[in-house]
Every structure is written in structure tokens, then in C-alpha cells.
TrEMBL record:
<dbReference type="InterPro" id="IPR012349">
    <property type="entry name" value="Split_barrel_FMN-bd"/>
</dbReference>
<dbReference type="InterPro" id="IPR002563">
    <property type="entry name" value="Flavin_Rdtase-like_dom"/>
</dbReference>
<feature type="domain" description="Flavin reductase like">
    <location>
        <begin position="28"/>
        <end position="170"/>
    </location>
</feature>
<dbReference type="GO" id="GO:0016646">
    <property type="term" value="F:oxidoreductase activity, acting on the CH-NH group of donors, NAD or NADP as acceptor"/>
</dbReference>
<dbReference type="InterPro" id="IPR036390">
    <property type="entry name" value="WH_DNA-bd_sf"/>
</dbReference>
<dbReference type="InterPro" id="IPR036388">
    <property type="entry name" value="WH-like_DNA-bd_sf"/>
</dbReference>
<dbReference type="Pfam" id="PF01613">
    <property type="entry name" value="Flavin_Reduct"/>
</dbReference>
<dbReference type="GO" id="GO:0010181">
    <property type="term" value="F:FMN binding"/>
</dbReference>
<protein>
    <recommendedName>
        <fullName>Flavin reductase like domain-containing protein</fullName>
    </recommendedName>
</protein>
Amino acid sequence: MNTYDAAMRLVGLPATPTSRGQELQDPLTCFPSSVVLVTCGQGTDGIGVLARSFAILSPASALVAWTIERHVAGASAVEQAARWEAHALAYDQAELARRIAAASGHGLADISLRAGANDIRVLEGSAVTLSCERVTSFACEDSLIVIGRVSGFVRSDFPPLIRHDNADAISINIGGHPLGLPAETTATSLSYLLGSAFFYLYGQMRDVGGRLGYNNIEMFVITALGERGGRTRLEIETLLAYSAHPTGLQAMDDLEARGLIESHDAVNGVLSDLSYDLTPAGRAVFEQAWQAGLRVETEMASLLGVPETVALRALLYRFVGKIDRYAPAAWL
């Protein structure tokens, strides 16, 4: 009996894969794992493969292990390599992972590696790179298991890309009060938390508009046209109403009179179909507001940290993308 057979019998699973293995696919996705690219070799002889799994065997001895399918292209090359790098992909490298997965045993020609500290080859934009020396490798059923010893590493501030429940996720560390479902108190509800965050951010941006000499509605119009020009009078009025602003559009005429926006006559002559764009002066005001927004984001990053800020942006982007389809007018 080999080690694999013994381990499977201990946990009550058959050693030979069956339909049971297919049933396990769903529960096994509940175990989050980093997406790891392993590279070895140089130039045209270099190769990169996505690890099926990656594990820390012994922090004290700096031992790590990873597996790939035995029959993928490049398996023999990585098995024989004396040195290799394990790159934990960053949160925004999911497309790179899909491209490499589609071309198993991917060459290094279009994988951007650079020389990092101690001449470690670092994958550009990755979360962390471990440089490893081969200890041993062995076959186990359909898998090749490689064990290595970490000889050096290069780490960035990018949060790693995580695979969980068959979807891409972002690694974050949420401390403080536990946020259960449903919310135990109003203070932990999404409505309260999103509302509090909105008023904080809105207050920051309102101060910017005030210093520039524009009221809330004027800054709203300038920002809306800065994000996408050519909006009609009716569309801007709908956006204002949807965001609970007063819908009177005297601000449009005032901004045009001050040379910040310009209107384009509608083909049918209907006032509500007039379209608007920012003038160069209006664009300059929008750029100031945009820079102020970036400063607010920088402040958030300093309070939360880079991984949490990235995760918050990703979640809000996904949420807004889902609710925009039901909005009477799209912001972007």
C-alpha cells in the first residue's frame, strides 16, 4: 500500500478516483487558496505552470510543496529543475492566470519577470515571489508533488488573488466587531455602514466644491459631465432626482453662462434633448475635484491598508455594476 492509498483509507475515501471525486469538487472550493504561478528555466527554455495546490510544510525549515497534474506540458521540466520561483498572483492578475491555464506549460516569452533583490526573478505585479531550491519530487496518482526550500523572497503591497467557491477573491484581514448575518444591530447593518461612509466621503468632496466656489448641484453636474460628456438635459435631471438632489436645472444655465459647460442644440428642438459637454474651463474644475477624490482614496488606504482598500473598491464596483441596470440613468 502506498502513501496515497493509506491516506485515502484513513479519511474514508477510495484510493482510485470515482464519481465521488466529482462530488467533492464543490465542497473542496470552500477551502481558499492562493493562485500560484511556478516558473523555472531561462529564455526560450523557461516555463511557467499554475500550481494545482501550494502548501507550507515547515516554516522553521523553510520547506514548501506544490502540485501539478503529471501529464501537463512542462511537468517533466519543472520536476527536474534545480531551482524555481513560486509567484503568488496579485488581486488583479486573474486574466493572466486564465491565459496561462489555457496554455498549460506556458513559455516565459510573454510573462514579465524582472530581477529583484538578490537576483530573484520576480513576476511583475505579483503579491510575493519565493525563490526555492529543489529538495525532492515524487508522483502520486495523477499528481506530481514537488518539495523545495525557500532561499529568498520578494514581497509587494499587493493583496494576493484567492480562489474560493470557484470565483476570484481578494485576501483581506477584517478585524474589530464581527459582522454576522443578519446584522445584530443597526450599527453593523450595510445600510448604516454604507450611509456613514457616503456622508464622510460626500462631506470631503463638498468642501472641495465650496472652496472652488460651486454649490452641490453645480459640482454634481460638472462631475457627471466629467465622467461622460454628451449627456442630455433630461438625463442630468434624472440623475439629480435619482440621487435625491432638487431637480431644478437653473444650475445648467448658470454653468453655461459662466463658461464651464456648453450645450448642443437638439435635432428636434426639444429643450430636454439638449446635450452638454464641459468646456476647457469646466474640465479644469473637474480635474481639481478628481484630484481631491484621489486624495480621499489615499487617506482611506492609509486608514484601511492597501488590501482592504482594494477589496472595498472591488466589492463596490461589483455592487454598483449590479444596481446600475435598475437605475433610471447610468452614472458612467
